[in-house]
Design brief:
The chain is an alpha/beta fold and about 375 residues long. The protein folds into three domains: about 80 residues, Outer Surface Protein A, domain 3 (Alpha-Beta Complex); about 180 residues, no CATH class; about 80 residues, no CATH class. The protein has nine helices and 22 strands. The strands form seven sheets. It has a nine-stranded mixed sheet, covered by helices on one side. A three-stranded antiparallel sheet has the order 2-3-4. It binds iron/sulfur cluster (SF4). Iron/sulfur cluster binds next to loops.
């Protein structure tokens, strides 16, 4: 492949490489499907490419390493992860600012549990959502009739909310699949509609985003999911994505930061919207848990998924003032293996102890395990 030797090679600013203990991933925020594991050395190679011409970078390597460097360039160019730029223009492409943006919303994400009773308080719920400038809403519907569900969905027709996900406890016989499909398409803000828990065998997917499933929906368990999205990545670099500007409204109208939180900050049925907003603003300035990022947590700080994973596995303080996950994650970043994969080992089996007493790591043991697992 031909390369302009007197030019510089830059990573597109919508791509980022996150390195973990064993692995690194290249995140492509515009084309998430292109994101992939890459060698950890690629990051330092790209850093030198940003300040030296291609010729200077290649001259730095001996013959064998030069071949690897050319392979890196081939990979980056073939996959369109970066571009060549002249000396004159090389400073015209600033990197994306990853500081947390000051945005006006008080709450950006609400989980709303709703049944026939809560439906009576829709006016207050809407008032709160509008005043807090909520962007995303997850509605968990229990025991709603067709008419109630329709009323609920239509009530968001002129809402400020940009995206709505609906989880509906499906009641066989009272709702036919056709009716559900019609209701689910009443509002274009609905991005996902899942009816769950029906007493039947089939799981049907009407389309990619509307699914009817007999599986149970476990509200308490949110599995690790990878969200390759630039604003989520920036949020993860700065705050706790499970708590920051999040609100949970329970069936009895209680407002909490999130489902597993003990502290009730108000009630939608009894408190005035203005008073609730005062609570949130106070939480924002005082609740230090909102600002715990993954890089503050033992083990997570060594994980390449730390800016794209979403988990409700919240950290606890250890005796040394650090933070640890009480429940071990299903992914072990020291060996790059997840539960169920061949060769997976727990942290303890790898010589990593992370608990209320503190954090300890046996690098030698991990090196031996990785040799066994990954070297041919
Ligand atoms: S260890 Fe688990 S919870 Fe922590 S960043 Fe990695 S995937 Fe997320």
């Amino acid at each position: 492949m031909y390369y302009p030797l007197n030019e510089y090679f830059k990573l597109f600013s919508d791509c980022s490489i996150v390195t973990g203990y064993r692995n690194a991933i290249l995140l492509d925020f515009t084309r998430p499907n292109k994101s992939n594991f890459v060698p950890k050395e690629l990051l330092s190679f790209l850093n030198s490419c940003a300040n030296k011409t291609v010729e200077d970078v290649l001259n730095h390597y001996n013959n064998e390493d030069k071949q690897v460097a050319i392979e890196y360039l081939d990979f980056m160019v073939e996959n369109e992860f970066g571009f060549f730029v002249s000396d004159k223009l090389k400073n015209n492409f600033p990197t994306i600012n990853t500081n947390l943006k000051k945005s006006p919303e008080i709450i950006d994400n609400v989980v709303l549990e709703i049944d026939g009773n809560n439906l009576k308080h829709l006016k207050s719920i809407h008032s709160l959502i509008e005043k807090c400038l909520v962007a995303s809403l997850e509605i968990r519907c229990l025991s709603l009739t067709n008419q109630e569900l329709e009323q609920l969905i239509l009530s968001f027709s002129a809402s400020i909310v940009q995206s709505i996900n609906i989880y509906l406890k499906y009641i066989p016989n009272s709702m036919q699949l056709d009716d559900l499909e019609k209701i689910a398409t009443l509002n274009s803000r609905i991005k996902k509609f899942i009816a769950y828990g029906g007493d039947y065998n089939a799981t049907s997917t009407i389309n990619r985003d509307i699914q009817i499933t007999s599986k149970k929906f476990n509200e308490n368990k949110i599995v690790r999911a990878n969200i390759i999205n630039l604003s989520y990545h920036i949020e993860s670099l700065n705050v706790c994505t499970y708590r920051y500007k999040k609100l949970y409204i329970s069936l009895n109208g209680d407002l909490k930061n999130h489902l597993s939180c003990d502290k009730v900050i108000g009630n939608i049925r009894t408190d005035k919207t203005e008073k609730l907003i005062e609570f949130f603003i106070e939480e924002h300035s005082k609740n230090e848990n909102w600002f715990i990022k993954k890089s503050n947590i033992d083990v997570c700080r060594d994980c390449e998924f730390r800016t794209v994973c979403f988990t409700n596995n919240l950290p606890l303080k250890n005796n040394q003032g650090g933070l640890y996950l009480e429940t071990e994650c299903t992914y072990n970043p020291y060996i790059g293996k997840a539960v169920g994969e061949e060769g997976y080992k727990t942290l303890e089996d790898c010589g990593v102890i992370s608990n209320e007493k503190g954090f300890k790591i046996d690098h030698e043991k991990i090196t031996l395990i990785n040799k066994e697992l990954w070297e041919e």
